[in-house]
Amino acid sequence: MALDDSPEAAPSRAMLQAAYRLEFERTGVEAWLAEDVAMIEAELVSQGRRLRAV
After folding, report:
1. First CA to last CA distance, the chain
2. 14-40 pLDDT, tens per residue?
3. Can you give the three-state secondary structure of 27-53, one letter per residue?
4. Domain, as residue range, for 41
């Protein structure tokens, strides 16, 4: 697939790049939070406690 460098394509390219960047940031943060929750849950289990969903 070729990149369209025409002036008419510029706004849609910029919007697409912004959407990909936001998706990367969103999924990166979610993965980071999921890792933290897993570590907290493992610590609670080691103490004989459980994490309760609210």
Report:
1. 46
2. 888 888 888 888 887 777 788 888 898
3. HHHHHHHHHHHHHHHHHHHHCCCCCCC
4. 29-53
